[in-house]
Design brief:
The chain is of the alpha+beta class. The chain is built from seven helices and seven strands.
Length: 166
């Protein structure tokens, strides 16, 4: 007797009303400045993002960052690192605070942005001690995060089960 297979995350998100445009090839290319800053990312994340042109929740208030977002060639009002830029602007002339903000974002790769209940995001922690862990941060202190999953695969499982609502 075989056990039933769960549908792939993209199929499950589509069933839940997400607007998804798939890519026909999975060669996900980050711009050189982004890949230099984040040289090591989990394969599951790269494969998932590489399979998408766009992926937006039904309310159009949360979306996965896809290749065009990182290259700034999409029509989004927000840049892929918008929340980092907001934090840096808020830091003003405080060079110590700016350094802390940059250090945080050097080890956190955002892959989903949301404006559902204010500005928030999900990111992969790329620090050696916590590599692959998924965190969520929200305004006004984007760099104060909560761990929501231990891996991208676990995050997708929670998202498709609606245990995480973007």
């Amino acid at each position: 007797m075989s056990t039933p297979q769960n549908p792939p995350p993209i199929t499950e998100l589509q069933h839940r009303g997400w607007s998804i445009e798939k890519r026909h090839h999975q060669q996900f290319q980050l711009p050189p400045e982004v890949s230099a800053r984040h040289p090591k990312l989990p394969t599951a994340l790269l494969n998932f993002l590489g399979s998408l042109v766009s992926c937006v929740n039904p309310a159009e208030t949360a979306w996965f960052l896809c290749e065009a977002d990182f290259h700034n060639t999409d029509e989004s009002a927000f840049r892929w690192n918008e929340w980092e830029l907001i934090s840096l602007e808020a830091a003003g002339d405080d060079s110590t605070l700016k350094s802390e903000i940059l250090s945080f974002w050097d080890h956190h790769f955002p892959f989903m942005l949301s404006v559902t209940n204010g500005y928030s995001y999900y990111a992969i922690d790329t620090s050696p001690a916590h590599f692959g862990r998924i965190v969520m941060g929200l305004e006004p202190e984007f760099e104060e995060v909560d761990v929501v999953a231990e891996s991208f695969e676990q995050f997708l499982a929670q998202l498709t089960a609606e245990a995480i609502l973007p």
